[in-house]
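Support request from a user on the community tier.

User writes: "When I paste my structure tokens into the form, the page sometimes reloads and wipes my input. The last time it worked, I copied everything first. Here is what I submitted, just in case something in the input itself triggers the reload:"
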């Protein structure tokens, strides 16, 4: 009888255990952020730094740094000042961005997604010239063929061909084709202007490439992105445009004579952003850089082979 009672108690005990599910295990240890960023959380200002140069080196819009650190125009910073990056949004600035419309210096409304590579002001547009209509030939004026002295045979098609050989059909000249964009890290790159590469990348002496051309020659965006800087605040760059293409990639366009875009504008690949010039340099050229995680890299490793 005691054995039966003991067996009954054991059966009741195990039945009760089976009716309760174990409590979930919750990991309360610190989690790594899904938006890990390659940039430091803080930066200490050094001699020669400006808010603009710090933005370029770290891939931030300088206005983001200013807002996060309560720095106001004219954006002065001091040596030893600690800048906080941890509160900055590390999401790609181009995600979900919408095309913008702005008014440029010539009072022409320009869409950021205009299908034309270049936009001209009304004063620059030359109306097409009218061509004079051809004069009808006088039916009475019939050309008279005279037989050259060298030919004594009767006229025939073969003889006429010998007198005046038929002109050869014009040869078709293939139109120049642009190299297909090269895709690196999901970003499609194309050349920002036409011209000869006069100076190539050198990590020690030249942080990009120099392309020679003519004053006023069109400079276009090497890839789609957001304009994060326009101006002449970085010494040695002249009139400068910086485009952010992704969280890790920027492109730099220096020495322009004129800038055709504004900060915060979303632009497409191939859109005109500036005109070539010689600001803060000794000759007309485009100095073009690509920055990857703040480090200057050889642009020709990104651009399509010509």
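"...and here is what came back when it finally went through:"
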């Amino acid at each position: 009888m005691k054995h039966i009672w003991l067996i009954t108690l054991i059966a009741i005990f195990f039945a009760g255990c089976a009716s309760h599910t174990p409590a979930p295990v919750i990991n309360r240890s610190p989690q790594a952020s899904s938006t890990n960023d390659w940039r430091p959380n803080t930066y200490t200002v050094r001699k020669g730094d400006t808010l603009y140069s710090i933005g370029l080196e770290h891939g931030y819009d300088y206005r983001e740094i200013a807002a996060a650190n309560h720095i106001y125009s004219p954006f002065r910073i001091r040596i030893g000042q600690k800048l906080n990056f941890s509160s900055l949004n590390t999401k790609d600035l181009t995600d979900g961005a919408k095309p913008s419309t702005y008014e440029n210096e010539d009072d022409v409304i320009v869409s950021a997604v205009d299908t034309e590579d270049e936009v001209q002001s009304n004063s620059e547009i030359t109306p097409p010239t009218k061509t004079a209509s051809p004069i009808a030939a006088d039916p009475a004026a019939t050309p008279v063929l005279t037989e050259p002295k060298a030919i004594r045979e009767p006229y025939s098609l073969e003889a006429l061909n010998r007198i005046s050989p038929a002109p050869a059909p014009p040869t078709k000249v293939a139109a120049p084709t642009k190299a297909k964009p090269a895709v690196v890290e999901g970003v499609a790159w194309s050349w920002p202007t036409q011209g000869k590469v006069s100076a190539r990348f050198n990590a020690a002496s030249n942080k990009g490439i120099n392309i020679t051309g003519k004053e006023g020659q069109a400079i276009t965006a090497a890839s789609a992105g957001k304009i994060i800087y326009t101006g002449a605040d970085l010494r040695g760059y002249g009139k400068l445009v910086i485009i952010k293409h992704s969280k890790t990639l920027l492109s730099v366009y220096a020495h322009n004579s004129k800038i055709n875009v504004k900060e915060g504008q979303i632009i497409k690949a191939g859109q005109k952003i500036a005109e070539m010039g010689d600001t803060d340099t000794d000759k007309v050229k485009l100095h073009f850089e690509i920055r990857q995680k703040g480090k200057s890299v050889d642009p020709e490793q990104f651009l399509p082979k010509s």
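Agent notes: The reload is a front-end session timeout and is unrelated to the input. Residues 18-34, 91-139, 141-153, 170-177 have pLDDT under 50 and may be disordered. The two ends are 98 Å apart (CA to CA). Escalated to web team.
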